[in-house]
């Protein structure tokens, strides 16, 4: 398990001969934002960083914090990833806009207070499951040509999905879309296992690339702030925030660990913990070859992916 100082040293030593291009989906706040900032620092601004998200002012503030160099290329693209049609629109634009892509970091989040009821999008899909899984899969699948271009040029081609590695649960292969039964707890367990299977499937499809699923632990990000309507939670929040310092990470430290996890591992699939450490084999894992195959076929159908 790397220490924070060793993770920082490893990140600081990152010095690619090329100008790396990185896409951060959900990079306007929290872990995605912190990881983007860590990459900008480690490259001294010699990077092309693209942030996808919904909050333009937050993205512009994040970009303003990046170090600048003559080669710096920073941009924001507004996108609500809870709709798969939006994902397809943005990936299609990227395919025509940039020549290659070295890194994809996926950390979109959706916090709901509904433990039993589904909250469906206008496309008829569970909103949380879209941001936790379907949209992530679609970004990777549709941007594979750009990752391939990077790999063909002898450059890095790596993907990091930030969710819940090691926290998976058994999944019902007869209800992969959770049409028969949906609860928040079931979705969280399913999505963790889906992400495990996702990175394994992509690593099998593209064995020269690196695909990582990471569990960030508890990070002091805005997603844990109570809503204005939650009076009781707002009363408890100051106490929780103080106590959390004993068992949580600051966004900046977490960003360093996530960048370390992104850059580590040359090829294959990896499941990692909060400090970028590789998880023990089988830890919180519930995948099988049959599950990988059936989830892949299900996802192709749901996302209307071209095969």
Secondary structure elements and their pairing?
Elements: H1 4-12, E1 21-25, H2 30-42, E2 48-53, H3 56-65, E3 73-78, H4 84-97, E4 103-106, H5 127-152, E5 158-162, H6 184-205, E6 210-214, H7 231-244, H8 251-263, E7 268-272, H9 289-302
Parallel strand pairs: 1-2, 1-4, 2-3, 4-5, 5-6, 6-7
State the CATH class. Alpha Beta
CATH superfamily: NAD(P)-binding Rossmann-like Domain
Instruction: Report the mean per-residue pLDDT as an integer.
Output: 89
What global shape is seen?
globular
What fraction of the residues are assigned to beta strands by DSSP?
5-15%
Overall tally of domains: 1
Spans with pLDDT under 50 lasting ≥5 residues?
Answer: 225-237
What characterizes the major β-sheet? 7 strands, parallel
Could you give the order of strands across the largest sheet? 3-2-1-4-5-6-7
CATH topology: Rossmann fold
Count of runs of 4 or more consecutive helical residues:
9
Count the strands? 7
- Please estimate the helix content: 40-55%
What is the C-alpha radius of gyration, as a whole number of Å? 18 Å
Order of helices and strands: HEHEHEHEHEHEHHEH
Just name the CATH architecture: 3-Layer(aba) Sandwich
Distance between the termini: 39 Å
- Which structural class fits the helix and strand makeup? alpha/beta
Q: What does this protein structure show overall?
A:
- There is one protein chain.
- This protein has one domain: 3-Layer(aba) Sandwich (Rossmann fold).
- The protein is 44% helix and 12% strand.
- It is built from nine helices and seven strands.
- Helix 2 (30-42) links the parallel strand 1 and strand 2 (48-53).
- Helix 5 (127-152) runs parallel beside helix 6.
- The longest helix has 26 residues, at 127-152.
- Mean pLDDT is 89; it is low at 225-237.
């Amino acid at each position: 398990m790397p220490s924070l100082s060793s993770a920082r040293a490893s990140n600081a030593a990152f010095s690619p001969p090329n100008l790396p291009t990185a896409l951060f989906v959900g990079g306007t706040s929290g872990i995605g934002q912190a990881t983007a900032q860590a990459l900008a620092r480690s490259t001294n601004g010699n990077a092309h960083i693209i942030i996808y998200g919904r909050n333009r002012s937050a993205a512009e503030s994040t970009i303003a914090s990046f170090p600048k160099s003559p080669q710096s290329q920073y941009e924001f693209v507004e996108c609500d990833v809870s709709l798969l049609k939006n994902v397809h629109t943005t990936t299609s634009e990227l395919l025509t806009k940039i020549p290659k892509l070295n890194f994809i970091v996926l950390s979109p989040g959706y916090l709901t207070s509904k433990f039993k009821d589904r909250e469906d999008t206008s496309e008829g899909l569970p909103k949380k499951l879209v941001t936790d899984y379907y949209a992530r899969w679609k970004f990777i699948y549709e941007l594979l040509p750009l990752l391939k271009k990077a790999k063909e040029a002898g450059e890095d081609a790596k993907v990091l999905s930030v969710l819940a590695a090691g926290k998976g649960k058994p999944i019902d292969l007869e209800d992969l879309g959770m049409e028969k039964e949906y609860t928040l707890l079931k979705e969280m367990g399913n999505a963790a296992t889906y992400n495990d299977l996702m990175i394994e499937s992509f690593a099998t499809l593209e064995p020269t690339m690196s695909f990582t699923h990471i569990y960030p632990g508890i990070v002091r990000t805005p997603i844990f702030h109570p809503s204005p309507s939650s009076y009781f939670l707002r009363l408890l929040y100051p106490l929780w925030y103080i106590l959390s310092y004993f068992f949580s990470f600051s966004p900046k430290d977490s960003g360093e660990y996530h960048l370390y996890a992104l850059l580590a591992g040359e090829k294959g699939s990896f499941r990692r913990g909060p400090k970028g450490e590789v998880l023990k084999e089988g830890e919180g894992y519930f995948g099988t070859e049959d599950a990988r195959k059936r989830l892949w076929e299900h996802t192709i159908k749901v996302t209307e992916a071209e095969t």
